[in-house]
Design a protein that fits this description.
CATH class of the largest domain: Mainly Beta
Distance between the termini: 33 Å
Low-confidence stretches: none
CATH superfamily of the largest domain: DNA-directed RNA polymerase, insert domain
Number of domains: 2
Helix content: 10-25%
Mean pLDDT: 93
CATH architecture of the largest domain: Beta Complex
Strand content: 35-45%
CATH topology of the largest domain: RNA Polymerase Alpha Subunit, Chain A, domain 2
Length: 267
């Protein structure tokens, strides 16, 4: 198996995996989405809320506010399977005490741990009118995406099989099929009498070009064991960190299964 990183930024990584199989790639995708720990606000005590927003909606917005969750930040915090996880004080405590008129933003959340704070300062939480007050205490805890979307570290975690575009040289060149591509993957070059492939990896295999060709000049397929994988996060965790942790989790699951099989499935 070969892996090639095509692009990488603070919130996104795109890489190519060659000589792999769909079940393995999909297992990594699922682990990245639901088995990588992330921190989010879980318990909310609303002491006072004079705003027009219902308490339940406000608590929901707090829970979906992304918090810095890199592995260094959450190290040592209890996991859902640990004793005492349900205790309010076992998490990172946040407080919010504001008086209107103003728009309360995520930056107004005061954390008990300087490392764990909202990823973005400008997320609007609630709007307060004149003399309206809001007092909140909240506890952020480590969880998994399989329990709630707020603990899902990825906003995009998807793969596609590597596209393959071929031409039928036995028929006349159909230049119209290139203009039918909605993503600009193909370009007609009448001077050199051929159709150029500009960016094969941008192809979504929608086959618009195939349908536009009246003589079957072009065909779109894919490499069965090659994949383009993309992971995007909300900024709470670096995408490379999510990928590595997902691989570790998958390896642990495989080790447990092997041990279970070797022991005869007695446990």
């Amino acid at each position: 198996m070969e892996i090639e990183v095509k692009s990488q930024s603070d919130n996104e990584i795109v890489f190519i995996v060659r000589d792999a199989e769909v079940p393995f790639i999909n297992a990594i995708r699922r682990c990245a989405m639901v088995n990588v720990p992330k921190i989010a606000i879980e318990d909310v005590n609303i002491i006072r809320n004079d705003s027009a927003m219902f308490n339940e909606v406000l608590a929901h917005r707090l829970g979906l506010t992304p918090l810095v969750s890199d592995l260094d930040a959450i190290e040592g915090l209890p996991l859902p399977e640990d004793d005492g996880w349900d205790d309010f004080n076992s998490g990172i405590l946040f407080s919010l005490n504001e008086i209107g008129p103003k728009v309360v933003y995520s930056k107004d959340l005061i954390s008990s741990d300087s490392k764990i704070k909202p990823v973005y300062d400008t997320i609007p939480l609630v709007k307060l009118k004149e003399d309206e007050e809001i007092i909140i205490e909240a506890s952020a805890k480590v969880g998994y995406g399989k329990e709630h979307a707020k603990w899902m570290p990825t906003t995009v975690c998807a793969y596609k099989q590597y596209p393959e575009i071929t031409f039928n040289d036995a028929v006349e060149i159909d230049y119209d099929c290139a203009s039918a591509c909605p993503r600009g993957v193909l370009k007609s070059d009448r001077r050199s009498k051929k159709i150029k492939i500009l960016d094969i990896e941008n192809c979504t295999m929608c086959k618009s070009c195939v349908r536009a060709s009246s003589n079957g000049y072009i065909n779109v397929g894919f490499h069965e064991n090659d994949f383009i994988f993309r992971i995007e996060t909300d900024g709470a965790m670096p995408p490379k960190e999510v990928l590595l942790k997902a691989c570790d989790v998958l390896g642990e699951k495989a080790d447990k299964f092997i041990k279970f099989s070797e022991e005869g499935g007695s446990k």
